[in-house]
Amino acid sequence: MAGESRFEAAMYGTVMRGMPHHDRIAGAEYLGDARTLPAYRLLTVGGEYPLLLPDAGGAAIDVQVFALTASIWRGKVDAEPTGLVEGEVELDDGRTVAIMLGDPDFVAGRDDVEDITAYGGWAAYVRASGGE
């Protein structure tokens, strides 16, 4: 919506530039690549989508930062798969921005969740897996 204020949000999965669901944030302005503080784990659910979880012993994860409106954000949130909740992430440049985080209760006890933190980001995992 014209004139609607924008805020910064980080993307780390299937809505990043070059990924299959990037159109879910159509109209958002790409601000650049960034990394989280080294305090997160990156998991995947069945190799289909990632979940980012806070973890003091975690690693820095690659993200893309966008400026987007509340309506774009709400459309993205509404399209998210199970296991994601709204939150904030700390970036290594000192910013704290909006993000969809993994729900620890969703992850607990599942056998289709794999820790992919060592890849450093979803795009690297997808490339290594032979995906898009």
Please characterize this protein's 3D structure:
16% of the residues lie in helices and 38% in strands. It has 132 residues and is of the alpha+beta class. The strands form three sheets. Strands 1-5-2 form a three-stranded antiparallel beta sheet. The longest helix is centred in the middle third of the chain and has 10 residues.
Labels describing this entry:
132 residues, 3-stranded antiparallel sheet
Shape: globular
What is the percent of helical residues? Answer: 10-25%
Rounded to the nearest angstrom, the distance between the terminal CA atoms is 31 Å
Average pLDDT over all residues:
94
Give the radius of gyration. Answer: 14 Å
- Compute the number of strand runs: 8
Low-confidence stretches: none
Summarize the structure.
The chain is α+β, with helices and mostly antiparallel strands.
What is the secondary structure topology, with strand pairs?
Blueprint: E1 6-11, E2 29-35, E3 40-45, E4 49-54, E5 62-69, H1 70-79, E6 84-90, E7 96-102, H2 104-107, E8 113-115, H3 122-128
Antiparallel strand pairs: 1-5, 2-5, 3-4, 3-8, 6-7
